[in-house]
């Protein structure tokens, strides 16, 4: 073994290399060859820290969630809930998740057989993909897509088939024809993300029904990432695809407490679905982390009984979305108004920036702000990548005074 083994060569020994290629983690090294890069979120947060720019890149709130939830976690630590919890998650949290699905969506869920607590939505998604797809299977996602989705499809060895969301005056919309054309006899799983990161789209009943039709025709499983389920604005409402006729039997719903309660670092997530599918996910999950977050699980069980704080968060985020969208538009960006999530997509082409990745790298110098280029959420060179090449994602989950300062700075760009 050489003194400093080459990480690229080491990574080539696992499926990791394909993951890196598919997601831009493996980048051309200026000195020649390839180097392993951090995720775009880590890279851009480091850029913000280095330059002192306002970080509107990585999506995390700059204030903590409700004090009663933090107090519940502290009380759980003091009460000695610090050893391994049960593999499925503690009963009170599984019951709270089932009650939440019933209360909000009318879904009947058995807390013992149909709920699995995971290390954030991330582990639920990873375990589901590793359990349910294999080489030769095709997985359809929307494009742009959250980076972890593409990475875990690659880790599972399956083939990623992205379908475009396109900017329209009514937000980003699913190309239903492209979805039908993308489906094949090899389509094993359709990975939905609704409300959608990075576009802020909230899928309509018609779009969800189009996905359901394809899933039924191809006998595909639907895996749906609904971590922004409570962050919908204006007249948009979240409709879980599992509520559509016949869909509960073939749908795994993944969500987490991070976004809903503003504790993104706690990583308490869950997977809900038919017992056989949840059992398949558990089979993998037990060998990833086994369990995690013992004292946070009872705290989130209490949080889930409270519908008031997510409603207040959505109301406040809608106002902050308006502030940032108006500021970006005044600065000269073409803004596609989001109806959900933490994020807005802004196109810098009209300001003379045809390359969003270049703009994102220069933005700390130009305006003291950091954003994430949309190309990081696209397959390199795809038609969607081309269409969104000049766009940057900004988050509005920051305090109002921070957003005001950011839009003042961005106004300099014009
Ligand atoms: N899915 C999407 C669409 C996300 O934006 C994120 C990041 N917050 C996750 C999953 C990961 O969620 P968690 O932090 O609960 O693992
Ligand atoms: N979900 C967050 C975002 O999209 C980032 C989470 C992460 O850094 N992996 O910005």
Write the SSE topology.
Layout: H1 7-11, H2 16-23, E1 26-28, E2 34-36, H3 40-51, E3 54-55, H4 67-78, H5 91-105, E4 115-119, H6 120-132, E5 138-143, H7 147-155, E6 159-168, E7 171-174, H8 176-182, E8 187-193, H9 205-218, E9 221-225, E10 251-256, H10 257-261, E11 268-272, H11 275-285, H12 296-304, H13 308-331, E12 334-336, E13 343-347, H14 356-367, E14 369-370, E15 372-373, H15 383-387, E16 391-395, H16 400-410
Parallel strand pairs: 3-14, 5-6, 5-8, 8-9, 9-10
Antiparallel strand pairs: 1-2, 4-11, 6-7, 10-11, 12-13, 13-16, 15-16
Helix pairs in contact: 2-7, 4-12, 5-12, 6-7, 6-11, 13-16
The structure holds 4'-deoxy-4'-aminopyridoxal-5'-phosphate (PMP) and glutamine.
């Amino acid at each position: 073994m050489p003194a400093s083994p080459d990480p690229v060569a080491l990574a080539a020994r696992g499926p990791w290399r394909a993951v890196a290629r598919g997601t831009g983690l493996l980048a051309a090294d200026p000195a020649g060859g390839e180097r392993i890069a951090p995720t775009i979120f880590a890279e851009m947060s480091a850029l913000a820290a280095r330059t002192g720019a306002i970080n509107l890149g990585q999506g995390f709130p700059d204030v903590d969630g409700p004090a009663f939830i933090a107090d519940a976690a502290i009380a759980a630590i003091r009460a000695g809930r610090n050893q391994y919890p049960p593999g499925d998650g503690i009963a009170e949290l599984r019951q709270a998740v089932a009650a939440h699905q019933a209360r909000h969506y009318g879904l009947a869920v058995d807390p013992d057989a149909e709920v699995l607590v995971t290390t954030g939505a991330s582990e639920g998604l990873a375990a589901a993909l590793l359990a349910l797809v294999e080489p030769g299977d095709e997985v359809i996602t929307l494009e742009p897509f959250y980076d972890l989705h593409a990475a875990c499809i690659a880790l599972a060895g399956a083939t990623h088939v992205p379908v475009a969301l396109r900017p329209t005056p009514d937000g980003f919309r699913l190309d239903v024809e492209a979805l039908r054309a993308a489906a094949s006899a090899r389509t094993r799983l359709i990975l939905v993300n609704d409300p959608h990161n990075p576009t802020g789209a909230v899928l309509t009943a018609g779009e969800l029904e189009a996905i359901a039709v394809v899933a039924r025709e191809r006998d595909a499983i639907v895996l749906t990432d609904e971590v922004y389920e409570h962050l919908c604005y204006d007249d948009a409402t979240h409709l879980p695809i599992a509520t559509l006729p016949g869909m509960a039997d073939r749908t795994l719903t993944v969500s987490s407490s991070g976004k809903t309660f503003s504790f993104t670092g706690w990583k308490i997530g869950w997977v809900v679905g038919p017992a056989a599918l949840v059992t398949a996910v558990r089979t993998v999950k037990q060998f990833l982390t086994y369990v995690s977050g013992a004292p946070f699980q009872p705290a989130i069980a209490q949080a889930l009984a409270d519908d008031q704080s997510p409603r207040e968060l959505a109301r406040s985020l809608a106002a902050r979305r308006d502030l940032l969208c108006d500021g970006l538009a005044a600065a000269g960006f073409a803004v596609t108004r989001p109806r959900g999530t933490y994020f807005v997509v802004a196109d810098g082409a009209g300001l003379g920036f045809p390359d969003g990745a270049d703009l994102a790298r220069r933005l700390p110098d130009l305006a003291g702000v950091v954003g994430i280029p949309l190309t990081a959420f696209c397959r390199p060179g795809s038609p969607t990548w081309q269409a969104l090449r000049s766009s940057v994602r900004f988050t509005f989950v920051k305090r109002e005074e921070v957003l005001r300062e950011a839009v003042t700075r961005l106004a300099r760009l014009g």
